[in-house]
Amino acid sequence: MISIATAVPADENLLTKRGKTVYPYFNKAGELNFIICNDQGSTIILRATQPLSNIHSGSIQSYSNLQTLQIKKDNSNDNWMIWEYGKDQEEDVFLGRIQERKICHTKNISIGIKGKNISPSLAFSPNNQAWATWINTRGGQSQLIVKNLDASLIWSIPSNSSLMYSPQIIIDGTGKPWLFWIEPKKRMDRLYYSFFNGETWTTPLTLDSNPEAPHFHPAATLNKNGYPWVSWSSYDGEDYEIFTTSWNGNKWLEIERITNNSSLSDAEPSISLYLNSIPMISWSQAGNGKRDNFISFKTESGWYPAINISHDNKRSQSPILITEGHKIAVAWKDGKNVYVKHLSFFELQAKRHPEITEKISVKSIHLASDRFIGFGDSITYGSMNGPFMGKGYIPRLLDLLKNNYVEPYISNRGIPGEQTWEGLSRIDSVISADLALYLLLMEGTNDITAIQYSMNTTAFNLKQMVQKSLDYGVIPLISNIIPRTRNLWKAIIRARTFDLNSKIESLAQEFNLSLVDNYNAFYNYPEEQGGFESLISADNLHPSNTGYQIMAETWHDNINFIPFPPVNLSQTIVANKAFLYQEYLNHLFWSNNPKNQGRFTIVKYRIYRKTTNQEDTLFIQVGEVAASQTEFIDRNFSSREEADNYIYGITSVDKENNESNIRKG
Predict the structure, then answer these.
(1) Which listed residue, of 48, 162, 364, 528, carries a Cα 20 to 30 Å from 640's Cα?
(2) pLDDT for 490-526, tens place per residue?
(3) CA distance linking residue 526 with residue 509, whole number of Å
């Protein structure tokens, strides 16, 4: 017997229940229903009336390992559910009609297509034909499968990169099917689309406008004219924002930017058309360690200021917005709970949530050389069979650091469940608040299981975190991701872990960072002592007590290999004039960092330079001097302006050839 106890919130328009997946829909009578999948692998269909505390229980059906579900209404006002279901390497896509709060007439629509069939999407044509799409992965290659379920026709769109994510299918008012999906191009996740011209699918084209930033979390529906309307999330140079565009019958309209926040990342959009005419969108916003859900709608003057619709919690995510007539509902999940909320358009019009557009400004940073920031997700936080603070690697590392530092301190900046697109939104505020010299970066575990984008996007986010750290003068150390055990160490998880760890290694090399190899510290743990599985707790994900100790020792070993950079770097432009000859020199001066004494034997300094408009990754070495020399002359500039166009950096190198980070002038 499965308990369906309901927690009645103070807000009679909000329902809270235990569950890991929720999807709302309106039945033929216009009543709000929702499907909940619980931790035991059962599906519960419930009907709610106003107030939402009035719950009418429906069918309880067992579908172990049920994944990605979507509910769509056909033109006869019937609701259909599509989902994926199966085991690690063999998963199938199923379709069923919802009748009287039961899933009926269930059938496997991917039968005969071997491999993993995942991430399904469903749409109905004006003549009520059912179309479905999903990703098929086999032998390391992906393809997009499209199927007309009524005509039993099937097509495949192969991937150019072997990776595809988040497919969406819609059919416009003319009966033309459209596909939208995410696929990497030149190591960057891009938004693609294709449509069916009556005979074949058109050559895929990119819809986004910036090839230098990741795009993910696409959402698609029809606009008021019956043409495609699409929204997604993309990086704007500081954090992630929500963008949208629509088709006018001949071309895509100019891309609109819906959000414009500073140090707040917006993603996971869900879109719907209120009263078949007003575009409405809900999304997740991450910042300061929280995630809230927001909603907005378009007026004649533009998009209405974002409205926070979250309940009193900290990790709202993955909103699903539905509308029917004057009715609006949003469902989302938060940890082990799911939420369903009725919304009133008139109440939304009366609310405003001002967006934060000012950039965080740190006018002076004095970094403490005995302070560290532990930045990451629940593994940094210290979770072990459930989230709790103080039992992870951070207190253990602090004990080890006391052997080398007078008063070491580590800020625990781990957020359970966080993905890297969220972490990117808060790293500026963390660094400016903690003022620590070191940042211990370990994040990406939750990205691995979020099969909505490639590890290219995760690597991009980590790179931006590293760059932001260096811009503040912070020394980042970056760790790869540890293995999982037993039922969580599936083939796709292993492949994504290996892919991400390879990219983290390349990132460390690109920025000359210390790579903290926690993966191999775990994986190579001696079999006679229990092997790596003994280092993972019973939840198969977070380290055990022994695992956290091994992690602390691995961090400590890498910290001990980083000498401190020079101090007091200054630059003077000198004119060297002679008969018929003139040159300008950059004369550099610096001092040895006194913190190296007794810990690191500095044998030389390396001199780097770049132009003022170049990124720090483009520093090139222009010289090297012995440790006894603390000055350097860079010469042969034809003018003062040319000499002044260069920025310099100096590093300390010890006798083991370990190099500090760059101290910029």
Answers:
(1) 364
(2) 888 999 999 999 999 999 999 888 899 999 999 999 9
(3) 28
